[in-house]
Amino acid sequence: MPEYDPTFDPRQEPWPPPPMPPPYPYPPPQWPPPRRRQSGLAVLLSVFGLIVLAAIGVAGWSIGHRSTRTPEISYFSPDRGQSSADIDSQAVGAKVAPGLVDVNTELGFRGGQAAGTGIVLTADGEVLTNNHVVAGATRIQVTDIGNGRTYQASVVGYARGEDIAVLKLKNAAGLATAPLGDSDKVAVGDAIVGIGNAGGVGGAPSLAPGTVTALNQSITASDESGGSTEQLSGLIQVNANIQGGDSGGALADGSGQVIGVDTAASAGYRLGRRGGGQVTATQGYAIPINQAVAIARQIQSGAGSATVHIGETAIIGVSVGGSTGATVSEVVAGGPAAQAGLAAGDVITSIGDTAIDSATTLTHLLDQHHPGDTVQVTWVDRVEQQHTATVRLATGPVG
Q1: Which of 46, 84, 89, 247 is catalytic?
Q2: What is the reported pTM?
Q3: Does the annotation count 88 as an active-site position?
């Protein structure tokens, strides 16, 4: 297993995106050249929050159809965390891994690719993962560890503020499902193993042993501009070295039961504790499985809410940032915002009757809409003149 720089954010590497047809009726904006080794996460709020957390982009990704026979799964355990005499990592991995998938995405607007992990919930291909694993995706392919097959996937829905998404694999049947445990029984000091697609390299799942160091933890995840942030709470903290690509994977206990969804590993973006202080590279986090499954069930039921979005993502066709307000940095040519007359440097101040005081507010508000909805947008231009226009929301990449 090669070693990885925890500050490395390969989504910003200058690798060309794979050829793909334009997914929208207007071309993407011309983005500035990507930068290497950024400390934060570039945001594409088009308008959707691209909070990538621990998902990792992979250069020149070749996504093919693995052998259709049931593969013989092997595991490797690089020095990725604290070893524990109380847990047999290989045995835990052998029990959990057949119910996991590798998630590979194409990021159509920004170009490039990304990878993460998912947990199989149903035999017909409903998969639990982190929202940030698929955020910004225009194409999703999923490789099932249990049978080696690769499937096209769509997003059933997501809860951005909880960092949860549910995928549906096309034409999947007979998949092995992950053994789910009870996260309410987790205690500090319990031995655990993080299982996932470390480094986004695919193939045999990787194992990161460690112990639970704290419960009910809260962190703040933010993009590089600081314009869009999410507060993640109720998390399990571990000293396992959860790496880029592990996000959406399983945190398992010593009996091989999934007790959490790996998330928020410190790779290539800013994480901070509430009240100040940064998250270190040795601190991993997981969403308790009871919490994650409750959200997944709401998504599976099709019951949207103020916090859960069902179906495709609606966009107005801008990227925004800034520490206050929603300042437009890019406008998608031919998109709803461009047709309404918005330009870079304008500040969006309200959507309908709702005041917009940050990029995060704008993102969450649009999560309550769907493509084809009409909204009234008010903005102030560079010379402080106010404008209002009604726009019809377009279909964008995953939220």
Answers
A1: 247
A2: 0.77
A3: no
